[in-house]
């Protein structure tokens, strides 16, 4: 006999709780062979929190007691631009920081995670390359900083790039499939941002080089229904 509510046959019903266990709100639950079954059209979290940290240095991330999974994007600091001392030759722009994507299972009750965000590399002095950016690290994983630009060479602009993201690995991105590392410094004296490289410079032309952008991290924390 089909399930009836108020005398009408019901083929399916959407619930927020089944047998005292939370189900994913909005997913389809059907009555099958004497029990409720949940049909998951996608893996959706019951709880989630997203943090973005853009300040260089050491940070303590507090893990909520409901969290079972952590995903993160790590980007190292951008390299500083190099600086040439004579004629019209310019220093080379710094390289972008590298990116890493993490997908981690977390034991419930884990209290904190230690995150280090790498600083951007310093601008090169006359006839010197730019400094290397610092690494951004979390749970033993590391996104190295970009190398500094050489004291002479091209391009003047620092490096920037995109970091591809698999939505199956990192949820809650609303369909976003890539994140941007940068922008970089593109003219004399323009610093990189968010892991982008700083611009090159020239002493004789009194054109300053520029530092790379500090790295950054975005951290997703969520849990899933145990049946997924």
TrEMBL record:
Ranges of residues in domain Glycine-rich = 54-217
Q: Which segments does the entry list as coiled coil?
A: none
Task: Report the InterPro entries cross-referenced here.
Answer: Gly_rich_dom (IPR049304)
Q: Name the residue ranges with Gly residues bias.
A: 192-201
User: What Pfam families does the annotation carry?
Assistant: Gly_rich_2
Q: Where is this region: Disordered?
A: 136-167, 182-228
Q: Report the protein name in the record.
A: Glycine-rich domain-containing protein
Q: Which organism is it from?
A: Corynebacterium hylobatis
Q: What is the lineage of its organism?
A: Bacteria, Bacillati, Actinomycetota, Actinomycetes, Mycobacteriales
């Amino acid at each position: 006999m089909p399930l009836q509510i108020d005398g009408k046959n019901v083929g399916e019903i959407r619930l927020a709780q089944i047998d005292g266990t939370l189900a994913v709100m909005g997913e389809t639950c059907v009555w099958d062979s004497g029990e409720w079954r949940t049909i998951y059209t996608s893996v959706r979290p019951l709880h989630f929190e997203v943090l973005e940290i853009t300040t260089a240095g050491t940070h303590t991330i507090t893990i909520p007691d409901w969290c079972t999974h952590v995903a993160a994007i790590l980007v190292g600091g951008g390299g500083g631009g190099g600086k040439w001392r004579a004629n019209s030759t310019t220093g080379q722009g710094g390289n972008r920081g590298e990116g890493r994507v993490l997908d981690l299972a977390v034991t419930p009750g884990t209290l904190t995670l230690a995150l280090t965000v790498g600083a951007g590399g310093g601008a090169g002095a006359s006839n010197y390359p730019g400094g290397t950016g610092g690494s951004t690290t979390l749970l033993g994983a590391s996104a190295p900083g970009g190398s500094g630009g050489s004291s002479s060479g091209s391009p003047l602009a620092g490096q920037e790039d995109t970091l591809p993201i698999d939505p199956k690995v990192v949820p809650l991105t609303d369909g976003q499939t890539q994140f941007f590392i940068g922008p970089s410094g593109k003219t004399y004296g323009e610093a990189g941002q968010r892991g982008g490289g700083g611009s090159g410079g020239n002493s004789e032309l009194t054109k300053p080089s520029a530092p790379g952008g500090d790295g950054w991290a975005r951290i997703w924390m969520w849990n899933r229904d145990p049946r997924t």
